[in-house]
Amino acid sequence: MKNKYGLPEDGLKRIRERDKNCVYCHKKMVNPNNSSKYRDWATIEHLNYLPPWDNISTVAFCCGNCNSSRSNKKLLDWFKSSYCIKRNINYDTVANPVREYIKKYEKTPKIN
Ligand SMILES: [Zn+2]
């Protein structure tokens, strides 16, 4: 079975188990069924801000609060926002899968 982004459910389950805490602010997240507060929810986060979004290796789980703050910004750009600065969210503090993603896709040196 696949979800609305074309992501396999079993892959999502694996990542949900890996990311019990928000990959950005490390807050413990809750199942959307157990809380009415979106900001506490475990939400699907596409580390890439542009599609395609059907690649399970670029998916993580983050809290609703971080998800709506980041929106469709590049991670390295979002880290400069007051939201991240206030919460000490940056390349050195985020969870490993995020850091790996940045290393691979956002920190690649440009060839001029
Ligand atoms: Zn968060």
Q: Main traits of this protein?
A:
single chain, binds zinc ion, two-stranded antiparallel ribbon, 5 helices, about 110 residues, 2 strands, alpha+beta, about 10% strand
Provide structural commentary.
The chain is of the alpha+beta class. The protein has one domain (9-106). It is 34% helix and 9% strand. A two-stranded antiparallel ribbon has the order 1-2. The radius of gyration is 14 Å and the shape is globular. It starts with 8 loop residues before the first helix and ends in a 6-residue tail after the last helix. The model has no long low-confidence stretch (mean pLDDT 92). Residues 22, 24-25, 27, 62-63, 65-66 line the site of zinc ion.
What is the strand and helix layout of this fold?
Elements (H helix, E strand, L loop, with lengths): L8 H10 L23 E5 L12 E5 H7 L4 H4 L3 H6 L8 H11 L6
This protein binds zinc ion.
Zinc ion binds next to strand 2 and helix 2.
Summarize the structure.
The protein is of the alpha+beta class.
List SSEs in N-to-C order.
HEEHHHH
Q: Give the helix proportion (percent range).
A: 25-40%
Specify the number of helices. 5
Spatial gap, N to C terminus: 43 Å
Whole-number count of domains: 1
Report the strand count.
Answer: 2
User: What would you call the structural class?
Assistant: alpha+beta
Beta-strand proportion: 5-15%
CA radius of gyration is: 14 Å
Reported for the largest beta sheet, the result is: 2 strands, antiparallel
Question: What is the 3D shape?
Answer: globular
**Spatial strand arrangement across the major sheet:** 1-2
Could you tell me which ligands this complex binds, including any ions or cofactors?
A: zinc ion
What is the average per-residue confidence, as pLDDT, rounded to a whole number?
Answer: 92
Enumerate the spans where pLDDT stays under 50 for 5 or more consecutive residues. Answer: none
